[in-house]
Amino acid sequence: HLQFFVDALKPLEEYKRLEQRLNAFAALGPRETGSKWTDLAEAREAWRQLGDSSAAPAAFRVHGRDLVEQMLVAFGWRVIAQHEGRETRSLLLSSSDTSGVRFVVTCKLTSADDAPTAPPAAKKPRP
């Protein structure tokens, strides 16, 4: 496997929603061309109808892209596992080839990630 360290990762649910949209988009593709879109305007409109308003070419940014999103969209990879430790969170990405390479993408947990879900219990005063 290869491991990448990134500044931040989105929640797993966001990546899974993107995977669902990608799967739905692939199912819409023209069958006569092997599910490959040849009309870009038609493909862009189909993608937009699946819930992504960023399908406009002017919205594209070259830098600062999310590495996991890029692997999902560009290569058709999928997130197959997640681990959250005390200080880091990692996602495991894989292609459909079960014997192929896998990528681990890791980020350091931020203070927002570490925030407890419930306020800490009040301390008792010392006697």
Concise summary:
This protein has 127 residues and is an alpha+beta fold. Helix content is 31%, strand content 20%.
Major sheet: size, sense and barrel closure?
4 strands, mixed
Taking the alpha carbons of the first and last residues, their distance comes to 56 Å
Query: Rounded to an integer, what's the Rg over CA atoms?
Result: 19 Å
DSSP helical segment count = 4
- Helicity range: 25-40%
The structural domain count equals 1
Strand order of the largest sheet: 1-4-3-2
Approximately what portion of the residues adopt beta-strand conformation?
A: 15-25%
Net shape? globular
Spans of at least 5 consecutive residues whose pLDDT stays below 50 are: 114-120
Q: Give a count of the beta strands, DSSP E runs of length 2 or more.
A: 4
**Helix vs. strand class:** alpha+beta
One letter per element, helices H and strands E, the order comes to: EHHHEEEH
Overall pLDDT confidence: 82
Task: Outline the structure in words.
With 127 residues, the chain is an alpha+beta fold. It has one domain (2-110). It contains 4 helices and 4 strands; from the N terminus they run βαααβββα. It has helices at 12-28, 40-49, 67-75, 111-114; strands at residues 2-6, 78-84, 88-94, 102-108. The chain has a 4-stranded mixed sheet, covered by helices on one side. Helix 1 (12-28) runs parallel beside helix 3. The protein starts with a strand and ends in a 13-residue tail after the last helix. The relative contact order is 0.19.
